[in-house]
Write a structure and sequence with these properties.
Elements: E1 14-17, H1 24-38, H2 48-57, E2 64-70, E3 75-86, E4 92-99, H3 108-123, E5 128-133, H4 138-146, E6 150-161, E7 164-174
Parallel strand pairs: 4-5
Antiparallel strand pairs: 1-2, 2-3, 3-4, 5-7, 6-7
Helix pairs in contact: 1-2
């Protein structure tokens, strides 16, 4: 099935695109290969049914699931999600992301998230993107800092991840502070 690349991949090492029904196997392998690397920060789909349900969820109006693909290898290397998209007076989405363990630490996640933020602000028309990150997840906190996010607060037992309620720092970026 043909896919549509989103963003300018000519000058970047990655591009983003919406998932298709055919992507579930490649996503599942990425998730399984990277499961230990992501623990305890995220809990990606780890079986066929969950991967297919994720791809279906990406069709919802309030959820923008994007695959980060390596430009030269045309391979899925990560995921960026804009969840709970609100319009009207709020114009906000919650940002989540993760990368394949084999591509971590190369700056590719930053490039993919930049493309997703561009899409959030200039295609979806959002005003604000918020990332909630566990305080111990220093690489993720450093990533959003590099992208210009501002720490807004701390939420105790904010999200239940891997069966435990976990504290999170709240980081946000508005369109006025982007770029």
């Amino acid at each position: 099935m043909a896919t549509t690349q989103l963003g300018n991949s000519a000058s970047l090492r990655v591009f983003i695109r919406k998932p298709t029904d055919d992507d579930w196997q490649e996503l599942l392998l990425l998730h399984q290969r990277s499961e230990e690397f992501h623990f305890p920060w995220v809990c990606p789909p780890l079986n066929e049914q969950e991967c297919k349900a994720y791809i279906t969820r990406c069709q919802n109006e309030d959820f923008e699931g994007l695959l980060i693909c390596h430009a030269s290898q045309n391979k899925i290397i990560g995921v960026v999600n804009l969840r709970q998209i609100f319009y009207r007076a709020f114009q906000n989405a919650y940002l989540g992301y993760y990368i394949d363990v084999d591509f971590a630490g190369q700056g590719l996640m930053s490039e993919g998230i930049r493309l997703a933020i561009e899409r959030a602000f200039y295609t979806l028309g959002l005003h604000r993107v918020e990332a909630n990150i566990q305080p111990e997840n220093k690489p993720s906190i450093n990533l959003v800092k590099r992208l210009g996010f501002t720490k807004e607060g701390f939420s105790q037992r904010y999200l239940k991840i891997n069966g435990e309620w976990r504290d999170h720092e709240r980081w946000a970026l508005t369109v006025e502070n982007w770029g």
